[in-house]
Structures are given as structure tokens and as C-alpha cells.
Amino acid sequence: MNNANYTIGEFSRALGLSPRTVDFYTRRGLLHPEQPSPGHGYRHYTEEDCRRVALIKQLQAKKFSLQEIRQILEEPSNPQTPSAVEALEQIARDLERFHNIVLENHAAAKVVETPAMRAVATDALQKATGLCSLLVSLLQEMPLQ
Fold it and tell me: Among the three residues 35, 58, 73, which one is the final residue of a domain in this structure?
């Protein structure tokens, strides 16, 4: 995709999404297409929208809710929305709490270890590792203030 504007059909095809998914993200406030020009009702999507979709997909893969994703994507200038830094700090606190729970469960599982408990602990560890990786990449992409 280059710097041009795209209709929902062009945009969705380029990203491998259905137009319905793009419309869903738009209705949920995750995407903000340019408003239609007079004379036709087509919304137009840009490169910025493409980057937002990539981040949305990353965050969804890490089990963030759409509401949490919207908060992360919102402009920090909106006083009702936590800044990206605040959102990431909250994620870090949640991750620390989650990590402590995993450690406690791991210690308890050693006492009475079963294959099912091992699978649950492994899954929790993989999720925690994924969240750590995402947090690090988001922090690296943030401009220094």
C-alpha cells in the first residue's frame, strides 16, 4: 500500500480482511477512516489505518479486549483516555501480577504435579512470555518525551 486513500473493499483486500471486519473495527472506534466526500458515501482508509490494523491484530493475539485495544490506540490528548504510557504501565502491572500468579501456581504444582497442571502452567507461561514481548516492542516504538 502506498500513501493513497483506499475504499473499504480495496483496504480489506490489501490486508486480507473481510470488508465486514474492517467495518466492525470502524464501528467499534478502532479505525477512523476519512469521511466521505460530498456526492458519494465511500469512506477512505489510509496507511495509518493499515498500521492500526497490524497493531490491533497483535493485541488481539495477546488476548486484549477490543475496549483495551481502543484505549491503547486513542490519542493521549484526550483527557478521558489514558495515555499510551499509562496504558502500557497498567499492562506492565497486570503482567507482573500475572507472573506472580504463575510462579505461585508453579510452586504449588510441583507438590502435586499432573499432566493437566503442567499443560496449564505451560500455557500460562507462554501467554506471559508473549505479553512481555509485546510490551517490550511497544515500549521500543514509543517516542521519548
Answer: 73
Residue with cell 504449588: 108
pLDDT in tens, 65-123: 888 888 777 755 555 555 666 667 777 788 888 888 877 877 766 666 677 777 777 77
Examine the domain organization and report whether 53 and 84 are in the same domain: no
Q: Is the pTM of this model over 0.70?
A: no
- Domain containing 22 equals 1-73
Cell numbers 504510557 correspond to 85
* 56 vs 43: CA distance, rounded Å: 20
